[in-house]
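Students often ask why inverse folding is considered easier than folding. One informal answer: many sequences map to the same fold, so there is more than one right answer. In these notes we will look at a single instance of the problem. The structure comes first.
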């Protein structure tokens, strides 16, 4: 029974953790783009994003990560035989990467607060694809375990995930270029009228 409780809360923790990670990097994108706004919007927006990032990281993302990890330890204590299984070793490798990503996000919150973040919003959008890939791989390992499918269906699904990520990036780039073109046209208008 304890095992089922741990598993239920392990999955709830994963959902909360990822909701936090995805939204946090979205906020980083808006925070970086606020830099292009004129004053006073620039300062007001940056202060607001700073508060939202800190609260999201401390109240949602980190507790989600802790619930996931604590319940995972509970799962391993109640079913220690998992510790000898290869899928779990791979899964732990990806979880280590995910934890690195989590703590790097904490560093980005600080760098953005100090105005020392050198990332562009386009780079940040690309970075937001990393947890998506880790989520897919980790969940596949947890569900399929040592019999991870390598047939055509699996490759098609994998290709679809990659295609979705690339489409999102290209669409964001197109929107940015359209906005830049629109701004350049608006700047030219007063000059033409003069
Ligand atoms: C902190 C390290 C982690 C460990 C040691 C761990 C370990 C485990 C174990 C032992 C199970 C039970 C497997 C079963 O009953 O069949 C499980 C289930 C699961 N884990 Fe993790 N896990 C970790 C992190 C994660 C993360 C980060 C994710 C998501 C990205 C995740 C997603 C899942 C899912 C979806 C299940 C349910 C699988 C099923 O019932 O078929 N786990 N995990």
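Output (designed amino acids):
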């Amino acid at each position: 029974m304890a095992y089922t409780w741990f598993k239920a809360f392990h999955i709830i923790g994963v959902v909360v953790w990822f909701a936090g990670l995805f939204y946090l990097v979205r906020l980083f994108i808006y925070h970086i783009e606020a830099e292009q706004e004129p004053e006073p919007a620039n300062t007001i927006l940056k202060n607001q994003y700073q508060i939202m990032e800190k609260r999201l990281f401390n109240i949602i993302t980190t507790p989600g990560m802790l619930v996931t990890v604590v319940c995972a330890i509970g799962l391993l204590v109640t079913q220690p035989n998992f510790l000898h299984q290869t899928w779990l070793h791979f899964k732990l490798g990806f979880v280590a990467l995910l934890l690195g990503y989590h703590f790097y996000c904490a560093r980005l919150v600080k760098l953005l607060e100090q105005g020392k973040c050198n990332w562009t919003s386009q780079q940040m959008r690309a970075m937001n694809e990393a947890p998506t890939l880790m989520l897919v791989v980790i969940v596949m390992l947890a569900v399929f375990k040592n019999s991870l499918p390598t047939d055509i269906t699996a490759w098609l699904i994998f290709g679809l995930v990659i295609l979705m990520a690339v489409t999102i990036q290209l669409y964001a780039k197109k929107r940015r270029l359209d906005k830049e073109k629109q701004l350049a046209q608006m700047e030219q208008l007063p000059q033409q009228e003069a």
